[in-house]
Amino acid sequence: MVGFGLPQxxxxxxxxxxxxxxxxxxxxxxxxxxxxxxxxxxxxxHRTINEDKDILNTIHYRPGKLTRGDRTLARYLQxxxxxPRAHSSGPFIN
Length: 94
Description:
Layout: E1 2-8, E2 11-16, H1 32-58, H2 71-82
Antiparallel strand pairs: 1-2
């Protein structure tokens, strides 16, 4: 599972979680099998993130620029625009 943080414009942080079901290794599997599978998964994750890093740092979502395949993303961005925002200092403004 991978999540992203946006500490400032043009930059992102990646938070990743890897988990393996050791039950899928079989009852006779040695302790090496889960470790080897985890190392392979971790290498794949790092490679994928590094390949996508430049794209993710320069991507810009704009209304009208999304394709039909971006329908789910468009709905999410609309959800963000419609989400109620707090204005905690509102009562203190004259």
